[in-house]
Structure formats: structure tokens, C-alpha cells
Amino acid sequence: MSSSSQSTRGILLMIVAPSGVGKTSLTRRLVADHSDLHLSISATTRQPRPGEHEGRDYHFVDRGMFDAMVEDDAFLEWAEVYGNRYGSPRTPIMEALERGESVLFDIDYQGAMTIHAKVPDDSVLVYILPPSLAEMSRRLHARSQDSEEVIAQRIARSKDEVSQWSKFDYVLLNEDFDQAYSDLAHIYHAERLRRSRNLWIAPFVDGLMAEDV
Q1: How far apart are the C-alpha atoms of 45 and 90, rounded to whole Å?
Q2: Which of 24, 26, 99, 163 measures 20 to 30 Å from 39, CA to CA?
Q3: How many CA within 13 A on the CB side of residue 210?
Q4: What digits encode the pLDDT tens for the residues 144-173?
């Protein structure tokens, strides 16, 4: 690792989108392509879905353990969604920032805004729009993970979230996956290069100014 990367502060990249927009595919590819970016693993009280694994997708805990973590102020944010609780553990996230690593959040609107309020200088907010609500509904039905009632709730909730688009730093349309991914990767690269996060610049420039040539 170079000296410049050691004195660069990471970012909290929060990706918010309605269910069925392709957020998971985009975030997983971004993490796979960038070794300095890690997915925040939330704790949740819900049961694992088919194919999900402890410690990779979520930390699956019971309600008693989750409540104890809330009492210990162990979360940067937590919320109850569709009868289940989700929370972002504070300590590993803040330690990653100090190491110069970045953390990606596959998160809902409420959680993103809570984290942004607590650490605004480190937060980058990205909202991903669906091509249409009809297409979003088709994708939700195709994955066959939710009941008709839950799908209806997700679509209604997406309208509330979309109305908050102006509170985000960036808004992307996932109509073409490759284009949306390219835009998301460019956002990440640009935010990592922001002057305020590159703590090595000031001493480096001081060294340049001190040179006698």
C-alpha cells in the first residue's frame, strides 16, 4: 500500500433503491471490482432467505440480542421494516474509515438519512430509479420471494422514497445495467479523489514547497 493510500480516509457509500431495481446486483459487482470497498453486513432479526449465509449477507440474530445491541448503542442506524429489525454495526464501519477503506451500504432511505445525519462528511448518497413501476413489479413477481401483500407494500413505499430524490447526492436510472454500473463506479472513484478525503496532499505539497531547486 502506498503512503498516499494510507493517509486517505474512506467513504460511506449508501445505495438506496426500491426492491426489484437491481440494487443488489450493482452493489455486489462494485464491491467485487474494488478491493478497498467492503459491503456493510447488517444485523437482522428476519430469517435467512434461500441462498443467504450468516456473515456474508447478514448477521442473523434473535430479537433479544438485537435489543441488547440497541441498548449498547452498537448501531449507526437501525429500523424495523416489514416486521423485522435491521441495523448497521457502528464499530467495524468507523474502523474501516480510519484505515482508509470504504464501506458500501445496501440500505433503505430511512437508514441512509440517519447515517448521513451522524457522519455527513463521510457519507455519499446515491438513489437508483427503476425504468418504471410496472417493470419493478414484474421483477418482484419473477423472483418469487414475497407475497402479493408484501409486493404491494414495496411498490407503495417506493413512491414515497422516489419523492425524496432531491436529498441525494446522485440519482441514477437503472434502465441499462452496464451503463448504470459504469456511472456508479465513476461516482465512487470521484468521491475517493475528493481533496478533503486525501489527507496526504497537504504534507506532500509542503514538501514540494520546501524543495530547493
Answers
A1: 17
A2: 163
A3: 6
A4: 667 777 777 777 777 878 888 999 999 999
